[in-house]
C-alpha cells in the first residue's frame, strides 16, 4: 500500500467515530429529548412508548435518509467528474441546474398553467399541491440533460 493510500485509509478510519457521534447527536436532538443511554439500550427496550416512537418512526428514518442522500450525492458527483474527466465538473456544466431553475420558476410564476393536464385529474392534483415545485425542478433537470 502506498503512502498516499495509507493516509486516505487512516483518514477514513479516523472519521468513523465522528460519524457515529454525529449520528447519535442527530438521534438525540429534537423537540423531545431522548437520552443517549436510551439510544444505547434501544435494541432491548426504550424507556416509554414516546421515546420508542420518536426513535423508530421519526428520527431513525430521518438519519438513514440523510445518510443515503449524502451517499447518493457523492456518487453522482464522482460519476459526473469521472464521465467528463474534469475534477471541477458540476451539474451546471451540462445545464441540469439551469433546466431545473427554469422549470421551477415557470411553475412558481405561471402556477402550472403551462403544464398540459391532458393526463387527467391526477396530474392536475399533483401540480396543485406542495409537490409541484420540486417535481417541476426534477422534470426540468431531466429535460435539460
- Tally of individual domains: 2
Coarse shape: flat
Which spans have pLDDT < 50 for at least 5 consecutive residues?
Answer: none
* Average predicted local confidence, pLDDT: 79
The N- and C-terminal alpha carbons lie at a distance of 40 Å
Work out the helix count.
6
Architecture blueprint of SSEs:
Elements: H1 3-28, H2 36-40, H3 49-84, H4 96-110, H5 121-127, H6 132-144
Helix pairs in contact: 1-3, 4-6
InterPro entries: ABC_BtuC-like (IPR037294), ABC_transptr_permease_BtuC (IPR000522)
Protein name: Iron complex transport system permease protein
Organism: Acetobacter ghanensis
Report on the architecture of this protein.
The model has no long low-confidence stretch (mean pLDDT 79). The chain has two domains: 3-84, no CATH class; 91-144, no CATH class. The chain is flat and about 50 Å long. It is an all-alpha fold and 145 residues long. It is built from six helices and no strands. 70% of the residues lie in helices and 0% in strands. Keywords: Cell membrane, Membrane, Transmembrane, Transmembrane helix, Transport. Its main location: membrane. This is Iron complex transport system permease protein. GO terms for molecular function: transmembrane transporter activity. It is a multi-pass membrane protein.
Amino acid at each position: 500500500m502506498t503512502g498516499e493510500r495509507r493516509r486516505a485509509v487512516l483518514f477514513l478510519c479516523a472519521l468513523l467515530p465522528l460519524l457515529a457521534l454525529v449520528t447519535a447527536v442527530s438521534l438525540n436532538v429534537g423537540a423531545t429529548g431522548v437520552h443517549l443511554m436510551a439510544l444505547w439500550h434501544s435494541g432491548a427496550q426504550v424507556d416509554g412508548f414516546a421515546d420508542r416512537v420518536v426513535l423508530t418512526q421519526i428520527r431513525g428514518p430521518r438519519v438513514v435518509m440523510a445518510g443515503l442522500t449524502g451517499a447518493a450525492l457523492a456518487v453522482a458527483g464522482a460519476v459526473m467528474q469521472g464521465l467528463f474527466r474534469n475534477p471541477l465538473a458540476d451539474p451546471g456544466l451540462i445545464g441540469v441546474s439551469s433546466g431545473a431553475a427554469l422549470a421551477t420558476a415557470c411553475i412558481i410564476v405561471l402556477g402550472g398553467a403551462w403544464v398540459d393536464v391532458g393526463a387527467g385529474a391526477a396530474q392536475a392534483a399533483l401540480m396543485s399541491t406542495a409537490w409541484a415545485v420540486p417535481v417541476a425542478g426534477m422534470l426540468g433537470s431531466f429535460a435539460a440533460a
